[in-house]
Amino acid sequence: MKRFTFALSILVLSIFSTLPANSEIFYSESYGYYMDLPEGYKLEEQAPDESSLYFSHSFLPVNFAIKIYDSKSGNTEQILKSALSKLNAKNDFSTIKWNNLECAIANFSFNLANSQNTGYAVSIPVGQGKACAVLMCYCPAQKYVQFSPAVLSTINSFMPDKKGFTQSGIITSFAYPETSRKEISLKVSGKNIKTFIDSEDAQAADFVVNYEYTLLTWYADSPLWKEAWQRYYRMIYKDSYSRLKQVSQSLYKEIFPVAAKKDSENPEKAYMQELLSWTQNFEYRRDHSKTDFTDLISAITAKGSDCDSRSLLLCIIAKHAGIDSALFISREYSHAIAGFNLEGQGARISIGDTAFLLGETTAKNVALGLISQDMADTNKWIPVELP
Question: Which residues pair with residue 140 across a beta bridge?
C-alpha cells in the first residue's frame, strides 16, 4: 500500500516521528485514553501533539489511524461524517451511547491507490469531553471477512479513560446493547442465590471470545505468541467484568457472611475458598472444534467449562470483592489457575512484589493454596495481570 496516502487526506499531519513497535498498553498523556492493541502493531507516525497517529501491523494486512478533533468541530456524529466524507467513503452510519458517552460508529469502505478497503470507524469523546477521537481500522476489502477479527479487536481495545479496562468495547456494545434483566439461580455453599444478568450477555460474551480466539490463532507461530495469549484473556476480562457485577455482588452478599463465620480471622480467604469449591463442581467441558473456552456468562449458567474459564471467572468475582487477583496460564501444562492476594499458607506465584495464593479450579475438593506437584515449576506459568 502506498505510504499512508490515507493520513495525508484525512489526518493532515505536519511533522511525524517514527517509533518502534510496542507491545505494551498504549497511553496518551495528552488526551487520557488507553489502547490494548493486538500484538504486532507498530506506531509508524505520530504528530508531536499526539493529535494524529498511524499504526501498521507487522504481519496482518490491517491499518489503524487516530485523529483528534476539538469538540468545537461539532458533535461526534458530525465529526465522523466529515472525516469519512474526506475519503469519499461509503458507510453504514449509526450513533450509540457507550458508557455514558455520545458516540458514532460506521462500517465504511473507500478506495486508496486503486485498492478497495473496508473496516470500522468510530468517534468517541476524549480529554474529559474537550476533544473527539476518530478511529479508523481497515484492511483490503477482499480480505475483510478473514481479517475482520483484527479490525473488531483493534477498535474494541480503545478506552477513553481508566474505567475502560473493565468495560465492554464499543463495537460489542453496539452489536449487543443492553436489553432486559434475566434472573438466574446459582447454588453455592448449599444456598440457592437469585441474581441477574442481561438477556444478551451470554451471546455478547461469546461473540468476544470467538473473534478474539480467531485473532489469537494467527500468533501460534509468532514470537509474540505469549503476549498475544495474555492479551486474549485481558480482552475477555475487559468485556465480562461489568457483565458479572450483579452476580458478584449477590455472591458477596450471600456467601461472605457464611465464610466470615467459618474463619473470622481471614474471611476473605474463606470467601474465596467457598467460591473455589463452587467452581470445582462445574460441569467439565472442552470443545476443540471451537475456541476451547466457555464464555463466563455461560460458565455460571451451567453450560460447561474448563480451567481457564473458571479461573478467570474467580478472578473477576474476587476483584469485585476488593481482592486483587491474577490469572496464570501454562503452555507446557496446558492448564490455567487463579491467584489471589490473600494471607495464609500455600503455593504462590509472584508478580512483582505480590505473591498470589493459587486456586486449582478443576480438581474437586482441592483447598486454596494447593497445586499438583507436577505443575509446581513457577517458571512454566505465564502471568496475566488484571486491572
Answer: 117
Q: Are 194 and 249 in contact (CB under 8 A)?
A: no
Report the pLDDT value the prediction gives residue 5, as an integer from 0 to 100. Answer: 31
> Going by DSSP bridges, is the β-strand pair 34-35/90-98 parallel, antiparallel, or unpaired?
unpaired
Q: How far apart are the C-alpha atoms of 272 and 263, rounded to whole Å?
A: 12
Alpha-carbon separation of residue 340 from 261, 296, 303 (angstroms): 20, 19, 25
pLDDT of the residue at 92: 87
Cell numbers 491507490 correspond to what residue? 113
| Cβ-based burial of 16 (10 A; exposed 0-12, middle 13-18, buried ≥19) | middle
C-alpha span between 66 and 123 (Å, rounded):
10
Q: Work out the number of other CB atoms within 10 angstroms of the CB of residue 330.
A: 17
DSSP string across 67-112? EEEEGGG--HHHHHHHHHHTTT-EEEEEEEEETTEEEEEEEEEEEE
Backbone angles phi, psi at 215, to 5 degrees: -60, -45
| pLDDT tens, residue by residue, 8-59 | 233 322 222 233 333 579 999 999 999 999 999 999 999 998 999 999 999 9
Tell me the one-letter amino acid at 284. Y
* Integer Rg of the chain from CA: 22
What would you measure as the largest C-alpha separation in the chain, in angstroms?
A: 71
pLDDT digits (tens, 9 = 90+) for 118-152: 999 999 999 998 999 999 999 999 999 999 999 99
